[in-house]
Specification:
6 helices; 7-stranded mixed beta sheet; Phosphatase 2c, domain 1; 6-stranded antiparallel beta sheet; hydrolase; alpha+beta; phosphatase activity
């Protein structure tokens, strides 16, 4: 992945990206035709210097061209805000696109996060998505991300929609080797060996059993473990897991020098849909 770029989309497979201060590993398993009911969407953007990495994970429900239309609009939101450290404007624009999709009969839950490498801070906005998890390297344990607050003034919205004031917001301070994991709704709906629904607690329990070494393989290993729990798991459902590991990688001097010139050109769009 390069600076001033947005990538991701609806793809099947695994990929590993290195950005300043952050390694990103994603495993996506696309099982259905997005025109026949929607699916998972993941987007990643990098600013002109690479200091700002923004990630969006969405579970989109909708028929016909709605998925592609909403994906294109959300990718445009990522491009317009690629160099903004704060994600307040991104959240509001994202909310506008979700509202527009609802008028067409669609719905999406989203998780938007922004990592700023110089301060090692991660800003999270959760709009109806399962809670992400963070691994604290010093304590060697996984934790659910809780204690959200609202960052917006209440305002009226269409029935069935979450207003921006209802989104959960939190900012985390991270250290090298800490990890942040986000995932699809479908994973919490899978079943354990005893046939009961995993839920968030069950998913966390499976995650805690995985070795945290070779972190880039954790998303794929977790999916394999979930499939092994019950024969019905993820047979037809989409599944996406994104894991970010904090590193000490600095912005290369070349990217610092070229950043002002990159601001003069448009953001590259490398999103793909299968």
């Amino acid at each position: 992945m390069n600076c001033m770029e947005v990538c991701g989309g609806h793809v099947d497979g695994s990929r590993h990206l290195q950005r300043p201060g952050l390694d990103v590993s994603i495993s996506s398993h696309s099982q259905q035709d997005i025109d026949a009911g929607g699916g998972d969407l993941h987007l990643i953007s990098s600013c002109a210097s690479g200091r700002i990495t923004r990630m969006l994970l969405a579970d989109v429900c909708g028929f016909g061209p709605l998925f592609r239309d909403l994906a294109a609009r959300l990718a445009d939101v990522m491009k317009r805000n690629v160099n903004s450290i704060q994600q307040t404007r991104s959240v509001r624009q994202m909310s506008e696109q979700l509202a527009a999709a609802s008028e067409q009969g669609g719905f999406a839950s989203t998780l938007l996060s922004t990592y700023f490498a110089p301060t090692r801070t991660l800003s999270i906005c959760n709009a109806g998505h399962p809670p992400p998890m963070v691994f604290r390297a010093n304590a060697k344990r996984w934790e659910l991300v809780k204690h959200y607050h609202s960052g917006f003034t209440p305002e009226p919205v269409a029935p069935g929609l979450l207003a921006p004031a209802e989104y959960g917001h939190v900012k985390l301070s991270l250290n090298p080797e800490d990890m942040f994991l986000s995932y699809s709704n479908s994973l919490t709906e899978c079943r354990g060996k005893d046939g009961t629904v995993l839920g968030v607690a069950g998913l966390k329990n499976l995650l805690e059993q995985l070795d945290t070494a070779a972190s880039e393989t954790i998303p794929q290993r977790l999916i394999e473990v979930i499939r092994g729990e019950h024969s019905d798991n993820l047979l037809k459902d989409e599944a996406t897991i994104s894991l970010c590991r904090v590193t000490n990688h600095r912005v290369p001097w070349k990217d610092n020098v070229l950043a002002p010139f990159r601001l003069l050109r448009s953001v590259s769009d490398r999103t793909t849909f299968t």
